[in-house]
Amino acid sequence: MKVLVPIKRVIDYNVKARVKADNSDVDLTNVKMAMNPFCEIAVEEAIRLKEAGSATEVIAVSIGDKACQEQLRTALALGADKAIHIETDATLESLHVAKLLAKLVEQENPELVILGKQSIDADNNQTGQMLGALTKRGQGTFASKLVIEGSNAVVTREVDGGLQTVSLALPAIVTTDLRLNEPRYATLPNIMKAKRKPLDVIAADSLGVDLTPRVELVRVDEPAKREAGVIVESVEELVTKLKTEAKVIS
Amino acid sequence: MSVLVIAEHENGVLKPETAKVITAAVKIGGDVDVLVAGSNVAAAADSVAGIAGVTSVKLVDDANFEHQLAENTADLVVELAGGYSHILASASTTGKNILPRVAALLDKSQISEIIDVVDADTFKRPIYAGNAIATVKSLESQKVITVRASAFDAAGEQGPVSVESLSNGAANSLSRFVGVEQTESERPELTAAPVIISGGRGMQNGDNFALLNGVADKLGAAIGASRAAVDAGFVPNDMQVGQTGKIVAPDLYIAVGISGAIQHLAGMKDSKVIVAINKDPEAPIFQVADYGLVADLFDVLPELEQAL
Ligand SMILES: Cc1cc2nc3c(=O)[nH]c(=O)nc-3n(C[C@H](O)[C@H](O)[C@H](O)COP(=O)(O)OP(=O)(O)OC[C@H]3O[C@@H](n4cnc5c(N)ncnc54)[C@H](O)[C@@H]3O)c2cc1C
C-alpha cells in the first residue's frame, strides 16, 4: 500500500502571529517556521503503517515556494521514502491545494492519503474533504485511530458528541486529529540520511490547475483586546465580585 | 439572493447551533431555506420551521442519512444547491466534515468559520488561532461558508412555515458507519452553556475532575478541559476547548489549572467574563482573565463550592 502525505510549512505553533502595521496581512518576516503540527501527526501515522507492514511506500508532498523543501527534508528524516515538491509562489486556497493534490493522486495512485485536519495558520479545515470529493474517495476526518483491515480503513473520529467510527473502502482519505499519535523526533543520523533521499520538484503550472484567486483578502486586524483584569485575594472576594460587579452569577 | 442552511441535529433533536447559523443567514439577506437531512428527523424539521427568519424547510428523512456521513450528504446538498447564492453550515465537526466536500463538488472555494457578515460577499474570520481577524471577500458566484455559532446570537421564534418533504435515497458506497461512543452527561452542552468551568493539567488526574462537579452543580455549568487534560486521559475528547476543540463564548468561563496557551485561548477568549485559578502568578491565562486568583486549586475548589 502506497501512502501519500501532504504537508504544509507554517508558523511555529509556539509563535504568536502579529498583524502588519498596514493591516494587509500577518507579518511572517523572520518568524520561525515549522511543519504544521497536524501534518507531523500524518507523517508519523504513515511511518507507523510502514513499520507495521501495511504500507510499502510513504511519499511526502508539499506545495509552496522553495522554502517548503525544508519541511520535506524533515519528513524524509522522520522516515518518508520520497518527497515531491510542487513549486509555486502563488498564494493558494484550500481548493487549489486539493486540486493540485488530486492531480498527484492521479499520477501516483496512493491507496491512502493522510493529511492534517487543518493548518494552524489559515485554520481552514478543508483540504482533505475537498480531496475526497475530487478523487471520489471516502473520507475519515479528525482521526484519533486508524486501522487497516483488508481493503478497508477503519477510522475513529473525534466528533463534537464523542467518538464516531467509520469504515472506508480503500482507496481513501484520512485527516488527523491531535490524539492519533505522538510524533517522533528526527535523529541526527536520519537527518543525514534524508539528504540522500529523492526529492522531486514539479512546477505547479505543469499540472494544469487554474490557480486564480477566488477569495480576496481585504484586510487583517488584531482581535479585540481584553481589558486588563484584577487579581483577587480570596475566594470570598471572587464570589462577591462575580455577583455584584460582573453580575454573571446570582 | 437566497441562502440554504444545513441544519444540525443529534438523535432527532435540533441542535442550538442551527438557530445561530440562521442569524448569520438572515444577515446575508434574501430567503433562508433550511435542509434537515437525517433519519427520523421530522421533529427537528418542525423545530426549524418555528425559527424566525426561515422561509421554508426541506426535509429529507431517509435511513441513508442516519449518521450524516459526508459522502452521500454532500451529494445530497449538491443536488439541492442549484439557485442558492449561499450555502451555510455550522462549523461543528459535522459541518466541517460535509461542507468542504460540497464546496469542491461545486468547484467553489469555501470560507470557514465566519464570525461576522460584513455584506453578502464579505466576511470576517479568525486566522492563526484567533491572533488575527481576516476580512475576506468571496469572488465566487455561489458561496460556501461555515459559521462559528458562538459568534452569533440565536434567532428568535416565528409562527411555523411549511416543511417540504423530499425523497432522496442517495446511498453511500465509500464509507460505512461502524459505531459511536457518545459521552453521556446531565450537564448542559459546552457550546450552549452560559457558564463553563474547565480543568487543565493542574487537575493531576481524572478523579480530581470531581472537584469541578460541585462548583458546576451550583452554577448549572458545563465542564470543559484543556488539551493537556484530554491527552493525559483525564477526560474525553469532546470536552476539549480551544483552537482545535470547541469554541465557546459563555457569560462566565472559569479556567482551573490551565496555563493559557494560545491554542486554548483561541477557544474561550470571547467569553464575557473570564476567571483564572492558577498557582503560578506568571501563567499567561491571567493576561486574559477579568478576575485572577493565584492559589492552589485543591484549596480553592472546595471553598468555592461552599461559597456559592
Ligand atoms: C496544533 C495544536 C493544537 C492545540 N490545540 C489545543 C486546544 O484546542 N485546546 C487546548 O487547550 N490546547 C491545545 N493545544 C495545546 C496547548 O499548546 C497547551 O499545551 C495546552 O493547552 C496546555 O494545557 P494546560 O494549560 O492544561 O497544561 P499546562 O500548560 O501544563 O498548564 C498547567 C497549569 O496548571 C497550573 N497548576 C498546576 N498545579 C496547580 C495547582 N495545584 N493549583 C493551581 N494551578 C495549578 C500550572 O501553574 C500551569 O499553569 C494545542 C497544541 C497544538 C500544537
TrEMBL record, chain A:
GO terms for biological process: carboxylic acid catabolic process. One of its GO terms (molecular function) is electron transfer activity. SUPFAM superfamilies: Adenine nucleotide alpha hydrolases-like (SSF52402). SMART domains: ETF (SM00893). The keyword GTP-binding does not apply. InterPro entries: ET-Flavoprotein_bsu_CS, ETF_a/b_N, ETF_b, ETF_beta_N, Rossmann-like_a/b/a_fold. Its cofactor is AMP. It comes from the Bacteria. Residues 23-211 form the Electron transfer flavoprotein alpha/beta-subunit N-terminal domain. Keywords: Electron transport, Transport. Belongs to the ETF beta-subunit/FixA family. PANTHER family: ELECTRON TRANSFER FLAVOPROTEIN BETA-SUBUNIT, ELECTRON TRANSFER FLAVOPROTEIN SUBUNIT BETA. The electron transfer flavoprotein serves as a specific electron acceptor for other dehydrogenases. It transfers the electrons to the main respiratory chain via ETF-ubiquinone oxidoreductase (ETF dehydrogenase). Heterodimer of an alpha and a beta subunit. This is Electron transfer flavoprotein subunit beta. It comes from Pseudoalteromonas luteoviolacea.
From TrEMBL, chain B:
The electron transfer flavoprotein serves as a specific electron acceptor for other dehydrogenases. It transfers the electrons to the main respiratory chain via ETF-ubiquinone oxidoreductase (ETF dehydrogenase). GO terms for biological process: fatty acid beta-oxidation using acyl-CoA dehydrogenase. Residues 3-181 form the Electron transfer flavoprotein alpha/beta-subunit N-terminal domain. PROSITE patterns: ETF_ALPHA. InterPro entries: DHS-like_NAD/FAD-binding_dom, ETF_a/b_N, ETF_a/FixB, ETF_alpha_N, ETF_asu_C, ETF_asu_C_CS, Rossmann-like_a/b/a_fold. Keywords: Electron transport, FAD, Flavoprotein, Transport. Heterodimer of an alpha and a beta subunit. Binds 1 FAD per dimer. Belongs to the ETF alpha-subunit/FixB family. One of its GO terms (molecular function) is electron transfer activity. Its cofactor is FAD. PANTHER family: ELECTRON TRANSFER FLAVOPROTEIN ALPHA, ELECTRON TRANSFER FLAVOPROTEIN SUBUNIT ALPHA, MITOCHONDRIAL. FAD binds at residues 201, 226-227, 240-244, 257-264, 278. This is Electron transfer flavoprotein subunit alpha. Pfam families: ETF, ETF_alpha.
